[in-house]
Amino acid sequence: MYNMAAPKCVLVSFALILICEISSSERNTRDFLKREHTLVKPYQATSTNNPTWDFIGSTILTSNYIRLTSDHQSRQGAIWNSVPCRVRNWELHVQFNVHGSGKNLFGDGFAIWYTKHRLQLGPVFGSMDYFVGLAIFLDTYSNHNGPHNHQHPYVSAMINNGSLHYDHDRDGTHTALEGCEAQFRNKPHDTFIAIRYHGTTLKVSLDIDGKNSWKECFTAHGVYLPQGYFFGASAATGDLADNHDIISMKLYEIDSPGDTAQEYYGLPKAENVEPPREHVDDHRNTVSGWKIFFVIILVLLGIGVCGVVGYVIFMKSQENSRKRLY
Ligand SMILES: [Ca+2]
């Protein structure tokens, strides 16, 4: 009996190992790469290789890179995926190259987007302000001399429900979720950024040292992003310029069998945003809050007075009618 069972066990476990190995090798290859959200060479807009991507503004395509802006002033360019992303947990890998002739003066940087709206040029690294979704900024130029607690270039994230303004003059410091310094410009080797969104955790990592390994930039918890938004990348130059090149954008689905997270349908939000620091608008908001309070008190008093006056008039008219009756 035992002699018969033993080879079966070996066979079964051998088959299991085979299945496990096949599925784990699949995980790391193109099965989990979402083709419709991926942009790789060759880039010809007319070719079937990139039918799901649109290019606008100063963007030019070559055989080796997509140039959002060239090293010239006042440019805006962007690329946008035309397929909304239904993947709940994902990781986006972007190979980029920011380079130019400027030694000390260069800018402004570029942004990677996961937003509700797409294909709208604007003032936020070449894309629209008051956006709805997630932005990752790779800001190469410090716009103000205020009390920055970090150097540039600076990588940061911003979550917006459409109500927040990106304050370019202050490098968006009042609306940044998290960030890190990163010297990614004018590198002789390939440079990459990874944006991972799993559950409600957003993690941004960089591979910019030519060591072929990811280094964490930051991790933020309590980040809520709905499905169905679009991936994109945009860049802008102003008085200062740089070449902002995208080499590839690859989206990986990272759902695992144990994931039971509920789908989120609300507006983008981040639970752990630092309270804004020394911002004039906040002061104004508290003042307007008090104003509203006083207005409500005045309205209530007004209603009270009207009520009393009305009651008195009513009683008098009742008295008069009674007098007339008798
Ligand atoms: Ca800046």
TrEMBL record:
Keywords: Disulfide bond, Glycoprotein, Golgi apparatus, Lectin, Membrane, Metal-binding, Signal, Transmembrane, Transmembrane helix. The chain crosses the membrane at residues 292-314. One of its GO terms (molecular function) is carbohydrate binding. Its main location: membrane. Residues 1-25 form the signal peptide. Residues 31-254 form the L-type lectin-like domain. It is found in: Endomembrane system; Golgi apparatus membrane. It comes from the Eukaryota. InterPro entries: ConA-like_dom_sf, Intracellular_Lectin-GPT, Lectin_leg. GO terms for cellular component: Golgi membrane. SUPFAM superfamilies: Concanavalin A-like lectins/glucanases. It is a single-pass type I membrane protein; Single-pass membrane protein. Pfam families: Lectin_leg-like. The keyword Disulfide bond applies. PANTHER family: RE50040P (PTHR12223:SF45), VESICULAR MANNOSE-BINDING LECTIN (PTHR12223). This is L-type lectin-like domain-containing protein.
